[in-house]
Predict the structure.
Amino acid sequence: MIDEGLIIMGVGMLVVFTFLAIMVLSMGFMSNLILRFFPENEKPISISRKRTAAALVTTVVTDDSELAIAVAAAHSIGTDNSELAAAIAVAHSL
């Protein structure tokens, strides 16, 4: 009884492993095929780390989602609390 269960478990795991391996290989092949015939012509976006957090938030913030984006952008610049506090204050004053 236990032997049959172990055999079924082994076959099931082998089937799943085989399916996942075929899926990973086919996705890699399709990715290379698409990039070969449809290359990306856009330049990658480079983000300058020299901007201050307050300068990023000086745009007009009209709703809460834009405020959240502004605060997240200010936080990604650095973890300096004074700079982050200044950016949040500028965002709330707009």
In short: The longest helix spans residues 2-37. The chain has a mean pLDDT of 76. The chain has two domains: 1-42, 53-93.
